């Protein structure tokens, strides 16, 4: 691609996370970090004009606890100090907006 600038740049939880499309490492506060140390095939990618990234990497890099529910095919992320509770659709939509990154 030849593009040298980060494809994703978001500051959250006091940390800066950079991701590059097609790269198996991200940058967390200036430190190169594997997105998935067990599987180098896990990389950010663009599909039909949308960026797809590994939610566990982004969540844990910004201080969130992350879990995968295989039965529901869903990822849940929460702040460790908060009690984990199921989210409504509206709450998930708020989280996908700036709300989670602004606190």
Strands of the largest sheet, in order across it?
1-2-3-4
- The low-confidence parts are 1-7, 98-103
The radius of gyration over CA amounts to: 14 Å
Largest sheet: 4 strands, antiparallel
SSE string, helices as H and strands as E: EEEEEEHEEHH
Q: Report the β-strand fraction as a percent range.
A: 25-35%
Backbone structural class: alpha+beta
* Basic shape: globular
| Number of domains as seen in the coordinates | 1
User: Span between N and C termini?
Assistant: 34 Å
Name the average pLDDT.
Answer: 78
Oligomeric nature of the chains: single chain
- Secondary structure: number of strands: 8
Q: Count the helices. How many?
A: 3
Helix content: 10-25%
Task: Outline the structure in words.
- The strands form three sheets. The protein has a four-stranded antiparallel β-sheet with strand order 1-2-3-4. The protein has a two-stranded antiparallel sheet with strand order 5-6.
- It is built from three helices and eight strands; from the N terminus they run ββββββαββαα.
- It has helices at 55-61, 89-96, 99-102; strands at 8-12, 15-19, 25-28, 31-34, 45-47, 50-52, 64-69, 74-79.
- The chain has one domain (8-102).
- It has 103 residues and is an alpha+beta fold.
- Mean pLDDT is 78; it is low at 1-7 and 98-103.
What is the gist of this entry?
About 20% of the residues lie in helices and about 35% in strands.
Q: Which features does this protein show?
A:
two-stranded antiparallel ribbon; four-stranded antiparallel sheet; 35% strand; disordered N terminus
């Amino acid at each position: 691609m030849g593009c040298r600038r980060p494809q994703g740049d978001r500051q959250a939880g006091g940390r800066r996370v950079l991701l590059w499309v097609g790269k198996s490492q991200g940058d967390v506060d200036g430190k190169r970090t594997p997105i998935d140390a067990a599987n180098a095939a896990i990389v950010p990618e663009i599909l039909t004009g949308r960026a797809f990234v590994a939610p566990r990497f982004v969540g844990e890099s910004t201080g969130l606890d992350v879990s995968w529910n295989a039965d529901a095919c869903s990822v849940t992320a929460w702040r460790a100090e908060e009690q984990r509770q199921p989210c409504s659709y509206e709450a998930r939509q708020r989280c996908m907006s700036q709300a989670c990154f602004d606190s």
